[in-house]
Write a structure and sequence with these properties.
62 residues; 0% strand; mainly alpha; 2 helices
């Protein structure tokens, strides 16, 4: 017969493995998405960097 502490440990380990599996699956999906569309994320990243640079320049001028 299992004690309550071992049951609690088993559930936490199961939750951890579920979380690990979800995060690994998410990273894999993201990697596949980036591999299928190599130009789009890079382009959006460049746009984001430009906007950040413009905002920084505007705040520096004030």
């Amino acid at each position: 017969m299992m004690t309550s502490t071992s049951v609690r440990q088993n559930t936490s380990v199961t939750l951890y493995f579920q979380y690990l599996h979800q995060s690994v699956a998410g990273v894999l999906k993201l990697f596949l998405y980036l591999r299928d569309r190599p130009s789009l994320p890079f382009f959006s990243l460049q746009l984001l960097n430009q906007k950040q640079a413009q905002a920084f320049e505007a705040s520096a001028k004030q």
